[in-house]
Structure formats: structure tokens, C-alpha cells
TrEMBL record:
Protein name, per record: Histidinol-phosphate aminotransferase
Keywords: Amino-acid biosynthesis, Aminotransferase, Histidine biosynthesis, Pyridoxal phosphate, Transferase
Self-association and partners: Homodimer.
Gene Ontology MF terms in the entry: histidinol-phosphate transaminase activity; pyridoxal phosphate binding
Pathway: Amino-acid biosynthesis; L-histidine biosynthesis; L-histidine from 5-phospho-alpha-D-ribose 1-diphosphate: step 7/9; Lipid metabolism
InterPro entries xrefs: Aminotrans_II_pyridoxalP_BS, Aminotransferase_I/II_large, HisP_aminotrans, PyrdxlP-dep_Trfase, PyrdxlP-dep_Trfase_major, PyrdxlP-dep_Trfase_small
One GO BP: L-histidine biosynthetic process
CDD domains: AAT_like
Family recorded in the similarity comment: Belongs to the class-II pyridoxal-phosphate-dependent aminotransferase family. Histidinol-phosphate aminotransferase subfamily.
Modified-residue entries (N6-(pyridoxal phosphate)lysine), positions: K204
Domain Aminotransferase class I/classII large: 40-339
């Protein structure tokens, strides 16, 4: 499969900006190359453009070579870079399933690239044939979100594999919630598919949404291109330091993950008993989607009690559906108490 031919023409011939840190990437004693202020305050120097210590640690955790990793200012930046690398505005198109993550349509509009949304079937299941039928010679990307937001479920691996095997475009699998799922990540298949990009994030299970660190794993050829078009200093010094610190405390990560998963079971059990819940969808993530009698009324009732949830009622297959993120044990209790009071009303 020729990945290069999928790139936009201007990107194929791009000469990237060469920063001071690109041209001298070793250790010196006196740095007079980047017009920085010399007085040390912890952030007076530009950050490492390739975030090497963070990638070295991620490489150990994920068992992926550092050359196959790209970091972004959140996965939102990573997704935008992918659009900009592959999609010619007004000409190319992108296929995604519906419902899915709200940033794909926004990024499509910003980049002036047509997004073709393919409805998921009942139970939020993916039909590869429909995704493939929606594609044409201008299709560059297929966006698959698994576990999916807002439904919470993993999408079927064999269906996704059919789209990868087609080798007609890049398949981006957004695994923002993969740490909560009891299944292997698509990372284990990276060597098998030159057209696979896996996106993950430190924003969810790792507890670092405020840092803005997103991860992209792909063949070296793709990572090289994304590196060439990203802003040189896209992950700041403080974020790199805090990310490395968190990645070195895997025990804390595992402890919190276990609590969240345990709490999810409790919330699911309570919702399943709840008279106002009509349907509870299986979740492989840190949130649950539930169909209730009247989503707007319950939303407003909870809001009055200062508990905010996400109303997804307007999405395909989501009529009267609310999405509940799993919080601390106390927060989840507030949610469940609120729902109980609503029912007594
Ligand atoms: C939360 C989320 C992300 C994370 O985005 P960041 O920019 O890394 O915070 C990515 N994809 C999906 C589907 C999400 O729900």
C-alpha cells in the first residue's frame, strides 16, 4: 500500500520548519541559539520538540518503538494533524460512523473536508459494508471510535478489520477510552497494517485532561509526516514534565482505574433498578449511556441539584439518552440520590 500517494500534494513536497532545537539536539554548556531569556525559571527554554523522555517511557508501557509515536496538544491536535496531512480541502472526504465523537465534524468543517456519516445499527454496532459503500476514490480517512463516545461500547474487531484490509485509506482508531476496556488495544496490530493510526490520550484514565497530551501511534512513515507538519513546540515543558511523572506512577493509575471500574458496576446496577431508566447500554468506558423516560426533565432536575450530566438526546439512536461519567464514590452517590428523588417527585 502506497501511503505517500494518499498525502496531500503540498505535504508530499513540504520542507518543515527547522527549529534551533532541531539543528542542535545534543548537550552543550552555553545555549545562545534560540533567542531565549537565559535566566532559569524552569520554563525559560523551549521544550524538546520530540518529547524524547516522555516517548521513551510510553515506548516501555505500550511496547511500541518511539519512532512510531507522535504526541500532540491533546488528541484533538493529533486528529487535526491527520486531516491536514491527508485531506485536500473541498476535494477529499472522510468517513465516520454516527453517533460518534463531536470533534470529527468540527475538524471536518475547519479543514473544509466533507464528512460522510454512516449510521451505526441498533445496539450501536458497526457495519463495515456500509462504511465501505460510503467511500469513493476521494476517501482518505475512516474514523472509528472504539470504545465509542457517546455509546460507550467497543466496536466489532472483525468489522474494523474489513475496513483496514480494504487498504483504500487511512483507518484512524480513536482509543481515548481503551484503558477502561477489557480487550487488547489495536496497538498490537500496528505492524500488520501500514494504514492504521491509533490515537490515545492522557486525558481520561491517566487523569491529565488539563495537561493536553494526546498520543498517536502509527507506522514510522506516517509519524515522520505528522512530525513535519506539527507546530515544533506543541507540547510545553510543564506538560512534558507532568506527563512523565504520571507515567512513572503506574501504580496510582492502576489504583484509580480499579476504583472507577468498580464504581461503574455500582452505578450500572443502580441504574438498572431505576424505574425511570428504560434502557442501559453496555459500557467499555468510564461512562454509561442510559435511555430514560424524559431526558430533558431529568437533566434539568439534576442540574438544579448542581449535578451536570450530558444530554445526548439529539444523536442518532440516542433519543432520551443521558451520558453519565463515573466520578468519585461520593459524586456517583449524589447522582443516584438525585435520580431517586426525581422518581419520587
Ligand atoms: C475525550 C476524548 C478524546 C480526548 O481528547 P483530548 O484532546 O486528548 O483531551 C479523544 N477522543 C474521544 C472520542 C474522546 O471522547
Amino acid at each position: 500500500m502506497n501511503i505517500r500517494s494518499l498525502l496531500r500534494k503540498n505535504i508530499q513536497s513540504l520542507t518543515p520548519y527547522s527549529s534551533a532545537r532541531d539543528e542542535f539536539d545534543s548537550v552543550a554548556e552555553v545555549y545562545l541559539d534560540a533567542n531565549e531569556n537565559p535566566f532559569d525559571n524552569g520554563v525559560n527554554r523551549y521544550p524538546d520538540p520530540y518529547q524524547k523522555p516522555v516517548k521513551a517511557r510510553l515506548s516501555e508501557i505500550k511496547n511500541i518503538a518511539p519512532e512510531k509515536i507522535l504526541l500532540g496538544n491533546g488528541s484533538d491536535e493529533v486528529l487535526d494533524l491527520i486531516y491536514r496531512a491527508f485531506c485536500e480541502p473541498k476535494v477529499d472526504n472522510v468517513i465516520s460512523h454516527n453517533p460518534s465523537y463531536g470533534m470529527y465534524p468540527v475538524l471536518s468543517e475547519i479543514n473544509d473536508v466533507e464528512l460522510r456519516k454512516v449510521n451505526l445499527d441498533a445496539g450501536f454496532s458497526l457495519d463495515a459494508k456500509k462504511m465501505i459503500a460510503a467511500s469513493d476514490e476521494h476517501t482518505k480517512l475512516f474514523f472509528i471510535c472504539s470504545p465509542n463516545n457517546p455509546s460507550g461500547n467497543l466496536l466489532n474487531k472483525e468489522e474494523i478489520r474489513q475496513i483496514l484490509d480494504l487498504k483504500k485509506g487511512i483507518v484512524v482508531i480513536d482509543e481515548a477510552y481503551i484503558d477502561f476496556a477489557e480487550t487488547d488495544s489495536w496497538l498490537t496490530e500496528l505492524d500488520r497494517y501500514p494504514n492504521l493510526i491509533v490515537c490515545q490520550t492522557l486525558s481520561k484514565a491517566w487523569g491529565l485532561a488539563g495537561l493536553r497530551v494526546g498520543m498517536c501511534f502509527a507506522a514510522e512513515e506516517i509519524v515522520r509526516v505528522l512530525n513535519a507538519i506539527k507546530p515544533p513546540y506543541n507540547v510545553n515543558v510543564l506538560s512534558q514534565e507532568a506527563a512523565l511523572k504520571a507515567l512513572n506512577q503506574e501504580d496510582e493509575f492502576k489504583k484509580q482505574l480499579a476504583i472507577i471500574l468498580d464504581e461503574k458496576k455500582k452505578v450500572e446496577a443502580a441504574l438498572a433498578q431505576s424505574p425511570c431508566v428504560q434502557e442501559l447500554f453496555p459500557s467499555d468506558s468510564n461512562f454509561v449511556l442510559a435511555r430514560v423516560e424524559n431526558a430533558n426533565a431529568l437533566y434539568d432536575f439534576l442540574l438544579e441539584r448542581k449535578v451536570i450530566v450530558r444530554n445526548r438526546s439529539k444523536e442518532h439512536l440516542c433519543a432520551n439518552c443521558l451520558r453519565f461519567t463515573i466520578g468519585t464514590p461520593e459524586e456517583n452517590q449524589r447522582l443516584l440520590d438525585g435520580i431517586t428523588d426525581y422518581e419520587k417527585k
